[in-house]
Design a protein that fits this description.
about 55% helix; single chain; mainly alpha; 3-stranded antiparallel β-sheet; 3 helices
Length: about 100
């Protein structure tokens, strides 16, 4: 039996690709809040409530992002989501 040719062996490439894809999936599933502190999130969400972009539901302790219809319990998560949603909406307008 002959050993595989080291030049044609792509096992290492596949392993690196698989590792990179897993890392990308992990990064995509995490919520990055490092750039938004609690005070900034509160200010942003306060402005969104005033502009009727976010509706508070006090009896359920939930904030609803009206354009997307998504509910949030965390002010910081809502602020991060809105920034991403707004960036995606702005990018969509540029493509038109």
């Amino acid at each position: 039996m002959t050993e595989p040719d080291i030049i044609d062996d792509t096992t290492g490439d596949y392993d690196r690709l698989e590792t990179e894809l897993v890392a990308q999936d992990r990064d995509a599933s995490r919520v990055a809040t490092a750039d938004i502190d609690e005070a900034t999130a509160r200010r942003l969400v306060g402005e969104l409530v005033e502009d009727d972009v976010v509706t508070p539901i006090p009896d359920q302790r939930v904030l609803v992002h009206e354009p997307s219809g998504k509910p949030f319990v965390s002010i910081t998560q809502l602020a991060v989501f809105h920034r991403g949603w707004q960036a995606a909406s702005d990018a969509g307008e540029e493509d038109e």
